[in-house]
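To close the section, here is one more complete example, presented without commentary so you can practise reading it yourself. The ligand is S-adenosylmethionine.
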Amino acid sequence: MPEPLRDVIARHGLQATKSLGQNFILDRQLLARIAAIPGSLNGATVYEVGPGPGGLTRALLDTGAKVVAVERDRRCLPALAELENEFPDCLRVISGDALEIDERREAGDGAHIVANLPYNVGTALLLRWLEGPWPPWWSSLTLMFQREVAERIVARPGSEHYGRLSVAAQWRSTPRIAMAVHRSSFVPPPKIASAVVHIVPAGEPPGVDPLVLEKLTAAAFGQRRKMLRSSVKGMPGALDALAELGIDSERRAETVSVEEYVALARRLS
Ligand code: SAM
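Output:
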């Protein structure tokens, strides 16, 4: 039986630091359930952001995965070094900032990304993984978010959560909420509930410039209560594109489907 995570944390003096988004999960059964979400990882490579004391890291190693983990808090490195000794050749820990490293080079094409993300950088990292060349270098994303962010990622038109993040996550990938996680599962407990989102890449609709789609949704949802004819009028050609596609310019951003945004962006690309 591995040492209880509570003892690992006490032994290494890893009191959680709020500024690093540290809310640790100590329940090994819950960690094993999260590690199972991507499907079989036996022999696969996993890229983990923020291993902390190493609870999720061990659960991933137990599946037979090879893990490349990047941790910003140097206090965690001795605990992670113990795990490296226990799983020789299977775990590589990088000391650094996930926002700055060349993750593709470190983890390699085809890696699965699994992380209990620090909340302060979670959305920035997700957008980075959703942008860029397609198909992406990663095979799947299994990520813990605040529940409200998870709902924005999977939201459908008409929902109050539907917005730029929903379109970014759905136009060429398929997200789902895989697990709700109660706040009491973390030490210390955050103020709000969390959820694990699982995202797999899908085919990319042809002829769409991702930057144009991003600009379009930024304009539309930037003024989500306004009619499209007012919110997107600053984009050259947008009003013509609405007319050509038969999209009523009096509709508001939150009623426009992902497919309609894609069709509009294609016209403007
Ligand atoms: N994986 C552990 C768990 O599930 O209990 C810890 C998760 S905790 C929510 C987030 C972790 O990310 C912390 O260990 C924190 O130090 C680390 N972290 C915060 N910002 C980071 C960054 N920019 N790059 C890498 N790690 C970061």
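Once you have examined the tokens, check your reading against these statements. The chain is about 40% helix and 20% strand. Residues 20-25, 49-52, 55-56, 70-73, 76, 97-99, 116, 118, 121 surround S-adenosylmethionine (CB under 6 Å).
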